[in-house]
Amino acid sequence: MYISCSAIQKILEIPDEGEAVVAGYWSQELGLCSQPTILTWKEGKVNSIEPLNLLESYPNSILRWDSYFLLPGWIDAHVHLALDSLDFYQCLENWAQPCLIEENMQGFLRHYLERGIVAIRDGGDLPGFSWLAKNRVNEGVWPGPKVISVHEAVNRVGMYGRFLGRGFKDILEWQAKERDFFDQGLDQLKVVVTGLIRFDDYQKVGPTQWSVADLKELVNAAHRLGTPVMAHASGDEGISMAITAGVDSIEHGYYMTTRQLERMREKGIAWVPTVAPIGNLLKYPNDRYSAHEINTLKRIQEAQLTKIQEAYHLNVRLGVGTDAGAYKVPHAESLYDEIDWMIQAGIPKLEVYRMATHENARILGSPELGRLDVGTPMSLLQLANDLG
Q1: Spatial separation of the C-alpha atoms in residues 30 and 48, rounded to whole Å
Q2: Domain at 2-73+371-384: CATH code
Q3: Residue limits of CATH 3.20.20.140 in the chain
Q4: Please, where in the chain does CATH 2.30.40 lie?
Q5: How many whole angstroms separate alpha carbon 211 and alpha carbon 191?
Q6: CA distances from 240 to 189, 197, 363 (A)
Q7: What does R_g of the chain's alpha carbons equal in angstroms?
Q8: Is the model's pTM score more than 0.90?
Q9: Which CATH architecture has domain 74-364?
């Protein structure tokens, strides 16, 4: 078995039973401890976590992880394994070479574990590469984090999302094919509510794809099966429609309003604001965008960070997701960018850690994740550099 060591970006092989000294720990369940601690595990699960006073009291046989802190493994609540973050259109062409995409995904999955990320939620792709990755990991064929996958998204034909799903011409076609769609397998249903934001026109968003009645039909179909619904939505109209339809999480949510945040809090809807696709274009400059587009990106980023801070103070559920695979949003590495963006928004570091572990586990519908307590599998933890 293994434990992820994000501190040195390695996956450490460990015995099924053992003990180690760590520099301290943090979790939602146990709180913060910044003094040396004895960790023991049996049958691959945490058996005890006991602070100690004297390092000299240790036997030499114990594993010395005393320069690392023990944390729950990170979770990225929004990725696209089938995209490479380098060139979107070239990547879509590469989809005609499944062996190449599978090789890329295996590298991404391993890197997630090396960076302490033990679970990801994939937002889908038309060929079903992410669903394949999920199954390969579950079968033990590929090493990697737990993958929650939507398989493919539900979008309208001729509108944004052709790489995410087959597209439906209207709700009647969806209803005719609904059973087959669910039978192909999915962990969550992803609905594309709006198009993309524009970098050259502030507050301009691609058109909405469904009526409120259509969205409710999609959401209810999933909820009847106990399946959560994530909604790609930005702009006033699209976000309002998603909230009214009763989705479980809103992805991206650019141009969010205060009233919408209040409604989300009332309904318990989570927001995964994905700052990295915007912020990383500014953090890692390139000559791809004009001065006007850069200024627009700065306005979008500033507005998004302001609303994230407001959402936190309003007690809206906030998740941490990167949209990894998008341009300049590399797999695994970008979660650290997203954590930094959330902190820059004014949220205390340990609160962001809680969001990237405990809250993301709720969003994924996987309560066994994002925890550090007696009984937690060692493979769902990480050894990190610091506690903030």
Answers
A1: 12
A2: 2.30.40
A3: 74-364
A4: 2-73+371-384
A5: 12
A6: 19, 16, 20
A7: 21
A8: yes
A9: Alpha-Beta Barrel (3.20)
Cβ-count burial 316-350 (b if 16+ within 10 Å, e if not)? bbbbbbbbbbbbbbbbbbbbbbbbbbbeebebeee
Structure tokens at 327: 């341009």
The closest of 108, 160, 171 to 322, measured between CA atoms, is 108
DSSP H helices, the chain, are 88-94, 98-114, 129-138, 171-183, 212-224, 236-245, 258-267, 276-283, 291-313, 333-344, 349-354, 360-364
Task: Name the token pair of 154.
Answer: 């539900």
Mean pLDDT, residues 199-220 taken together? 97
- pLDDT tens for 39-64 read 999 999 999 999 887 655 667 779 99
Residue 138: both structure tokens together: 């579950």
Residues whose CB falls within 8 Å of the CB of residue 196, separated by 6 or more in sequence, listed in order: 160, 205, 206, 234
Across the range 65-73, mean pLDDT stands at 97
Q: Say which residue the tokens 């925890």 belong to.
A: 371
Q: Taking 70 as the threshold, does the pLDDT of residue 388 lie above it?
A: no
Residues 6+ apart with CB under 8 A from 60: none
